[in-house]
Amino acid sequence: MAWIVAQIAEKTLQQSPIATGLVRFVSEGTLDEKAKTLKPKTFPGKKRKQETALFYRPARALARMACDLAAQSGERVVAVLFHDADGTRSARRGLWQDKWDSMINGFNVEGFHFGVPMIPKPKSEAWLLCALKANQPYQHCARIEDESGNDSAANNLKTQLKNELSEEPTSSLLAEKVGSGEVDVFRIDMPSFRKFRERLEYLIVSAKPQ
Amino acid sequence: MSKQVMRFREFMQQTTSLDLLAPQYLRQRTRDSGGGLGLGGERLSAFLHELSTAQRQKLVEQLRQCYPQLESLSTQSLRSGWKQLTVQERFGDRRLRTEARQVNDGMLRLMAILAELLTDTQFLLFDEIENGINPELVEFLLDTLIRAPQQILVTTHSPMILNYLEDDVARAGVQYIYKTPEGATRSVPFFSIPSLARKLEVMGPGEAFADTELSRLHEEIAEMPAADQDTGRAVPR
Predict the structure, then answer these.
(1) How far apart are CA B105 and CA B18, in angstroms?
(2) Which of A62, A98, A131, B38 fits as disulfide partner to B43, beta carbons 3.0 to 4.6 Å?
(3) Is the minimum CB–CB distance between A159 and chain B shorter than 8 Å?
(4) pLDDT at position B37, please?
(5) Which of A41, A51, A58 lies nearest to residue B163, judging by beta carbons?
(6) Is the pLDDT reported for residue A94 higher than 90?
(7) What is the pLDDT at residue A90?
(8) What are phi and psi of B144, to 5 degrees?
(9) Per the CB < 8 Å rule, is A32 touching B201?
């Protein structure tokens, strides 16, 4: 997923953010730890729907870290927060749009306006399958978003990806396929990807020094 | 039914809950307590009358953590044999004596719960513990119940109650009671459900509970390994 971000950023910036040392990575564990201690604790209500706290709280945590980094470096910071929409651990409840909105709200509530939700629907394998499927790659990908994100389901997305690759879809293999350009991120066309890419491109341009 | 199950059933039948703890019962004058608070706590004033000086002092000290203006609790025997509970509070230079029937609901309810902890009963049941308790008192109440020597069973629908549990206490102690689509009642440790375990890494137990669409939770529970579910053979009821 980081390589997807890097390739979009490189095309927009006309330089590689990885090569120029402009990328920082925050682990899920670090973000969780910070998210857990955030105050005030909030409950769903009129302002936030159920099944969104796993998106809202990490967004707040990442926003705070991004604000700190911006203050230290004197530079604008664009932060990308990744979370599968309906992965196995998120139990596949709640609407995608509510999850997107809650990440944006989490960024905003911390006064941070350069946050990008990266929420593959139902999970990241869907975006990669769009590019790697042998039958009509990059076409008719929207329907993949309606598949189950449950790894225990028959013919789940992980299994489909394994079948397309004829080997285990390990992180390093997938990173290599994206990094090398074999997965052309600019041809992936499905609603959850489009929304992520549009916002990332817009904010990278907005964040550029004038 | 096995002897063990029968003994358990007898035990639970004797157990009463303070779920009928309506303020009007708390405020009544009562004749005597028979050692417990009575179904509706209507024996509270008689019960307090029979406490030792040390026990009553302990109760007042505990209550004063939530109500710093509280000075003392007193009970009088009336000519009829009824016991009357009076609360003495200090506001600046003023001392106010208030009969139980005019005391605020929260103080009476907390008084009844704390008084119950002074009894010899080893197992206590409090249904919907959050009722009548203001938010700022919840932490004190939960900490007191967790530290109590008795085994305590609390039922709640309140995210705020859950949020005052430490994670390890929540993992070990919170059971989720639900109905399957077939109508059978089941229970499962709440934070053994995968999505709830995940949420607990990022938020408090109460927030995790409130964030969850409970009406669909049974779907996820059904996907858990059979050994992790409660797969009792009880018929739907």
Answers:
(1) 14
(2) B38
(3) no
(4) 54
(5) A41
(6) no
(7) 56
(8) -65, -45
(9) yes
Q: Please tell me the distance from the alpha carbon of residue A6 to that of residue A17, in angstroms, as a whole number.
A: 6
Contact call for B198 and A89, based on CB within 8 A: yes
B199 touching A (Cβ < 8 Å): yes
Question: Touching check for B119 and chain A: CB below 8 Å?
Answer: no
CB distance B210–A35 less than 8 Å?
no
Top residue of A37, A50, A156 to mutate, by most chain B CBs within 10 Å, is A50
CB contact under 8 A, A42 and B207: yes
Q: Which residue of B has its CA nearest to A29?
A: B201
pLDDT in tens, B178-188: 999 899 999 99
Flag whether residue A152 sits within 8 Å of chain B, measured between CB atoms. yes
Q: Where are the alpha helices (DSSP H) in chain B?
A: 3-14, 23-26, 44-49, 53-64, 105-117, 135-147, 159-163, 167-173, 194-200, 205-211, 217-223
In this predicted model, which residue has the larger pLDDT, B1 or B93? Answer: B93
How far is residue B216's CA from residue B195's CA, in Å, rounded to a whole number?
12
User: How many helices, marked H, and strands, marked E, lie in chain B?
Assistant: 11, 7
Q: Which of A97-101, B74-78, B180-184 has the lowest mean pLDDT?
A: B74-78
Domain ranges of chain A: 2-207
Look up the ipTM and state it. Answer: 0.79
User: Is the Cβ of A36 closer than 8 Å to some Cβ of chain B?
Assistant: yes
A142/A140 Cα distance (integer angstroms)? 6
Confidence of residue B155 (pLDDT cuts 50, 70, 90): very high
Q: What token pair was written down for B53?
A: 């000086």
Residue B211 contacts A where some CB pair is shorter than 8 Å? yes
Edge-to-edge strand list for the sheet holding B70-77: B70-77, B83-91, B94-99
Q: What is the pLDDT of residues A154-171, one digit of tens each?
A: 888 989 999 988 888 888
Identify the burial level of B218 via C-beta atoms within 10 angstroms of its C-beta, where 0-12 means exposed, 13-18 middle and 19 or more buried.
Answer: middle
pLDDT attached to residue B234: 44
